Each structure stands twice: as structure tokens, then as C-alpha cells.
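Hi team,

Below is the intake form for tRNA N6-adenosine threonylcarbamoyltransferase from Aurantiacibacter zhengii. Please confirm the fields before the structure is written into the shared record.

FORM ID: S-0412
PROTEIN: tRNA N6-adenosine threonylcarbamoyltransferase
ORGANISM: Aurantiacibacter zhengii
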Amino acid sequence: MTLVLGIESSCDETAAALVTSDRRILAQAIASQEEEHSPYGGVVPEIAARAHAERLAPLIDKVLKEAGKTLADCDAIAATAGPGLIGGVMVGLVTAKALAMASDKPLMAINHLEGHALSPRLADSDLRFPYALLLVSGGHCQILRVQGVGNYQRIATTIDDALGEAFDKTAKILGLGYPGGPAVEKLAREGDAQAVPLPRPLVHSKEPHFSFAGLKSAVLRAHDCGEHSDADIAASFQQAALDCILDRTRRALSGMDAVSALVCAGGVAANQTIRAGLEGLAAEFDLPFTAPPLPLCTDNAAMIAWAGLERLNAGFAADPLELKARPRWPLDPDAEPARGAGVKA
Ligand code: KG4
Ligand code: ZN
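The structure came back. Fields below:
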């Protein structure tokens, strides 16, 4: 049995977790910064970095004590080394380096997206490579063929906004606060998903890429015209987003080499309507569908510890103490940029 300490600090959650190779989360703690950022309607990088610096060490201490373990019991220290807000990533990575050095344990520098990509295997021991992954978070919207640990083929990406960003902006327009995804989902339950005509950007286009900027602008117009209830706008937005996801993922699956399952991960994978839609889509392709339990969808340290365990198990070497934090770090460095990418509405 192998034990890894995981550290996550790439956005607005400070998190630590102890996870074993037989898929047990011995202890985990997450300190959310919702209160600090909500007056600004989004994450303020400087505030985030300071909050991580204050909270991380006591959080690590807490999970070790809760599990009755010390650093000497850990086989490696895994920390997010990017992509993300650089100040926060540096706090987590430098802490992990110091702990690794002091305890003479290997440092595993984890790509945050790899944490999300492998998180479904922490919850589901039957999930085998290769699988099709829809990775939908606040910063990313991608379809990947997950071929093995450290081996990701990017099939599609967004040419403008990420899906979580579209949820957050819709929430802001409707005055629902930050983070917006769960609030939009809740309000959508009271609305009519067909009430507001909204566009489905890129639906039916040949390449399976995503675009959400036009949808966001249409939500703003629908709100400003004053003819619709907030609940109808939320429900219609969520339906339009789902229609885009289903069409784009269907397109990607049609052109993809064989996979064992359709998987959804990242913060937006917590959305029940989106999970249900994807389950139906997987059935069209005779594939099982899986998504991690809700606490493993949004940012957490268990997925970072798990990615460290997967890397150890796959024979990856420890990372050097001089390793740099990376604000950008694509999972598939060979993927071509999507046509039209970077054009924000
Ligand atoms: O993975 P995550 O915690 O952080 C990033 O790596 O970005 O994802 C956060 C994103 C936010 O945009 C949040 O609004 C969205 O996930 N989200 C949701 C739900 N829960 C979180 N979006 C839709 N429905 C939800 N229930
Ligand atoms: Zn994330």
C-alpha cells in the first residue's frame, strides 16, 4: 500500500488530502475562499495567493493529524504545479518542495488538468484506459482521449470561454453571486428550459470544438429586454449549454478510436442535468458513463494525491526541487490550436 499527500492551490480552494493506492481517502480538508472573492464577482489572484499562504500549512497539519500519520508515513508529496493562478500555484508547490526536502520523500509535480482527468479512476476501480473525457471546469472545456497516465490526446477545446465561465457569467448577469454554477443549476429547476430562445454556437459544425461567448451575450440580451423571468433564463441557458455539449461530444465520439467509457470530470460535472444528458449520450454509443462523486468534481486535493499515485505506479520519476510553477500547461502539447481560438465576444 502506497500513501501520498496531495496539495491543491491553483485557484480559489486551498486543499490537502492523504490518499492510498487502494483508493482510500484517509483524510482531506478544503478551505474555500468564496467569502473573500464574492464581493468582486470572481477570483482576485492576489487575494487568492495570500489566502493560500495563510491556510495551507495548518490544513496539511490537520489532515496528517486526522489520519494519525506523519510525513515519514507518506511515500511521496504531490502538488499542483500548474496550470492556474501563478501566485497560488507557487504557494502549493514551494510548500510541497519544502516538505519533500525535509522528509526526504519524492516530489510529484501534478498538472491540475491531469488531476481532473484521472479523478474518475479514484472513485471507479473498473474504469480502464482508454476513455473519452469531457473535462469541463471554470478554466477549461476540452474533450480528450485519455490513453494512459501522462498520455492525453486532445480532440476538442473551446475557441473562447470555458463552460464553467459561461455558468459563472450567467450567474453574474442574473445577480446570483459567485461561484455561479450551483446557483444557476438551482434556479433552473424552477424555470422553463424552452421559454427563452438562445443560440447553440458551433452546433453541427464539422470540428467538435466548443464556443460559449455568443451564448453568454445572448443571455445578457435576454436579461436586458426584461421579458423573461430569471428562472426561465437560467433554465434556457442550461438547456442551450447542454445541447452544445451533447452535439459536440457526439461529434467527437463519432470520430474517435474505440474507448471503454464516456467520462465527465471538472467542476461542471457536478451539474445533474449535464450528467443525465451525458448518460443518455453514452447509451447511444453503447458506452458506460461515469463521473466522480460531487466533492471530487470541483477542485480538491484527493485528485492531486491520486494523480501522484498513478504516476508513481506508472513508473514516472520524481520531479526536481528546482521545478518551475507553470501558469499554462496543456495536457496534450501536440494539439493544434483550434481555428478561431482566442476570439472572445
Ligand atoms: O474544477 P473547478 O472547481 O475549478 C477549475 O479548475 O476551474 O470548476 C469550477 C467551475 C466554476 O465555473 C463553477 O461555476 C462550475 O465549475 N460549477 C458548476 C457546478 N458546480 C461547479 N457548473 C454548473 N453546475 C454546477 N452544479
Ligand atoms: Zn479544476
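SUMMARY LINE: The chain has two domains: 3-117+296-313, 129-293.

Thanks, M.
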